[in-house]
TrEMBL record:
<protein>
    <recommendedName>
        <fullName>Copper-binding protein MbnP-like domain-containing protein</fullName>
    </recommendedName>
</protein>
<feature type="signal peptide">
    <location>
        <begin position="1"/>
        <end position="22"/>
    </location>
</feature>
<keyword id="KW-0732">Signal</keyword>
<feature type="domain" description="Copper-binding protein MbnP-like">
    <location>
        <begin position="35"/>
        <end position="235"/>
    </location>
</feature>
<dbReference type="Pfam" id="PF20243">
    <property type="entry name" value="MbnP"/>
</dbReference>
<dbReference type="InterPro" id="IPR046863">
    <property type="entry name" value="MbnP-like_dom"/>
</dbReference>
Amino acid sequence: MKTTLYKALAIVALSISLFSCSSDDENETSAEGNGKITLKFDNAYGANDLILNTQGNTTSNNEVLKISLVKYIVSNVVFTKADGTTYTYPKSKSYFIADESTTAGQQFQLTDVPVGDYVKVKFGIGVDEEQWKLGAAGQGDFLAQANDAGMLWSWAAGYKFFALEGTFTSPTVTTAVPFMIHTGKTGTDYNYTEVTLDMPTKALVRTNITPAVHIVTDLSKVIDGKNKIKLSDNNANGMGAMIMGGANLPLITQNFSAMFRIDHVHND
């Protein structure tokens, strides 16, 4: 009798499990409509969360940086679903300025994103050259926004894609001097780059779920990544290191590909 009862209970449990799986699959595949997704950018230096102005950050070249400003343009966002299809966020809306000094500059909510299970995100650092050539027609009000944020070289010359500023010391520079790293178009180098990141867990965009994708930006990679740049070597006349062009800028741009990682995804 007990054996028969156990078998019956097992059948009921299996039926419930199969129904639950079937329902979940149906909800996933039949979901329609649009939702939202938030990209959160958390600036760090190596293993440490970034603290502006006071935190000493040591490079492999034994240079110590105190960072006072971090800003970069995030653009051209593309999401990849679990089935391999992609959704390109409209370029006219796809411009954001990450800014460590403001709460608004640390997270961006993207709206009208098709419901789905997303496993990758791609984005640019800067404004791609094709869009820049379109001018206001391609970038909408972002030109004015970038100008207000100090992210334009000038209205004619184009955007600053990435800006890192502060002071540094080294074994040969014992008194702190300024450093400034600005990327953008310089001569024939456009210095725009794109980054593709895998989600550690799926971002479940639903009409009633807004995932938050937590992206860590490791600023140590800017000058201490695959390509290692010594600020001391760029210390012009002892007045500081101002890297805004020259051979180092494309090398710094190459470092950006390893600067970002997704730490986690919240689905709530």
